[in-house]
Amino acid sequence: MTAHSERERWEWMSAAGVGPLRFGMSPADVAVALQALASQEQVGGPYSQENFADGVKVFYDDEGGLACVSLDAVVGPQAFLAGWALAGRDPGQAHQFLLDHASEHGNCLLYTPDDSLALADLGLLLRAQRVGDVLLSRPLFVIEEWLESEYYRDRLPLEGVAVVHVWNEPS
Hints:
With 171 residues, this protein is of the alpha+beta class. It has helices at 27-33, 91-105, 144-148, 150-153, and strands at residues 9-10, 12-13, 17-18, 21-22, 41-43, 48-52, 56-60, 66-71, 78-81, 84-85, 109-111, 117-119, 124-131, 134-142. An 8-stranded antiparallel β-sheet has the order 5-6-7-8-14-13-12-11. The protein has a 3-stranded mixed β-sheet with strand order 1-9-10, with no helix packed on it. A 3-stranded antiparallel β-sheet has the order 2-3-4, with no helix packed on it. It is globular and about 40 Å long.
């Protein structure tokens, strides 16, 4: 695990991107910006997804433009909202921080079916990621169209979230 003090700090620009990544970038531009020869892994799903080293996952829209950036809860870059670190926090504290921030600044709140919380007008979605026996906050920076779309919003990266399966007993 990477200590908080050792994490690279990425500037978050609401509706524009985070760190060296800008929404709309092509996969080749993303690789250059992350100084990577290629992604570690390409993942299928309702959108094109690439997983890079150091806890960065990126998602592309149908035209191949960058639409979402996910930062790991423990490794990789750290981003901040009003001076508050978004990754690696207790999810309950993170939710309360977002609620307080929204109340103070008039942000639009949005809950997803997995109980994640978004500040939709800022393009910020906080998910939980399981790390060992605990859950920690993991920020996703998302284009407005995807946060407004139930289809994309609810299919954004759910890895690491505790999933509850309901088994129906045969009648």
